[in-house]
Amino acid sequence: MKFDDKIPIYYQIKNYLYHEMMTGALKPGDKLPAVRQLAVDLTVNVNTVQRALGEMITEGILESQRGKGNFVTMNEQRITRLKEQLVMEQLERVYEQLHALNLTDEQIITSLKQYIAQRGQRDDQRVSD
Amino acid sequence: MKFDDKIPIYYQIKNYLYHEMMTGALKPGDKLPAVRQLAVDLTVNVNTVQRALGEMITEGILESQRGKGNFVTMNEQRITRLKEQLVMEQLERVYEQLHALNLTDEQIITSLKQYIAQRGQRDDQRVSD
DNA sequence: CCTAGTGTTCTATTTAACTATTACACTATA
DNA sequence: TATAGTGTAATAGTTAAATAGAACACTAGG
């Protein structure tokens, strides 16, 4: 896995696992790969994986069972709330950044629409999906 | 100045200066505060400031004159391109992140609109501007 | 009971970022 | 020419993140 060296790896691992949960690749109750296996898959050290998982366990998103494995919480509300929170964080950040670049609310929305439209064109050229 | 400890300070300083240029607080040809003064203002070390400025000089956004100071480039096209690039980076990032959270193109635009609308309400309560 | 698979913890080491301090190079000006 | 203000560079020390390696604790199944 490729990492952005501007951001701590354990932090990027958390985001990776969040996304796996949001897209349904990891569902409530699912068992995660073993920490040693995750470390191999992500080409990082076990301790780095453990740090990421440790925080997610503290947050109540994951549940650890010693000797068995790490599991996604069965509490679906927690996952729903997490998704809302992650979306909100992204919106806040992009809004503040673009606002700081002196774009108006209108310009922010317009530029996003344009970006998506252009991206659509670009993707259409690759696959006529 | 407050920094996000997830991101290198020199990197955040670059962004800060970018924003100063985008909002017109720093115009083409303007002289920046002395590196030592910037270090005091931002409560960081001179070397950290220097690292940020050094990269911006390499990028051609700033021009350094030994003994005189650091200046914003007179080449306005470079600044225009920089702004376009910064906006595009933000759009790309938020799009990819929200897409990874399984939102459709439509949902991405809608959620941003909603966010801005809600934010507008919130701001209206504070100041009837 | 033994073993394989799992999570957990610890120590030591390396590396990048940041800091602290000092020195050097150049410019303007009194 | 002396001095103050500026950028530049080098050295040394600190800290957080990441790595490497080992040991410990628990579970399941033969």
From TrEMBL, chains A, B:
Keywords: DNA-binding, Transcription, Transcription regulation
Organism: Levilactobacillus lanxiensis
4Fe-4S in keyword set: no
Domain HTH gntR-type span(s) in chain numbering: 7-75
UniProt-recorded name of the protein: GntR family transcriptional regulator
Pfam families in the cross-refs: GntR
Repeat listed as a keyword: no
Source organism superkingdom: Bacteria
